[in-house]
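Working notes for the structural subgroup meeting. M.R. asked for a predicted model of this chain before we commit to crystallization trials. I am recording the input and output together here so anyone reviewing the notebook later can reproduce the run.

Input as submitted:
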Amino acid sequence: MTNPRIHAIIVKHLWTISFLLVPVFLIFSVCSAGQFKVSRVTDGDTITVRDGRVERTIRLVGIDAPEISHKKREPSQLFAQTATKYLAGLVLNKTVEIKEFGQDRYGRTLAWISTEQN
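Returned structure, recorded in token form:
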């Protein structure tokens, strides 16, 4: 049987090590998903990309745009159409590089995107 004092010291150090390693795992969990063509802009912070036959919905990290209503008789938030059109002008039908950060509660890929400017 182990000494309770030694056991407490080991547990304390394991907790410390785990708190130090969590940020490291989070940093390395960011992975590049590659290049995709933007096929649709859903609203000011959500796009659909295509790689061949595979389509993915991307929620842009760091952007909180007004929401467009997809229901009849329910108005969209102010400037939702403006935000959607602006994003479409930037990325629609262009190839983007995606850096993933996991998924949200709706199953969308959370990501940063970038385009190559000529």
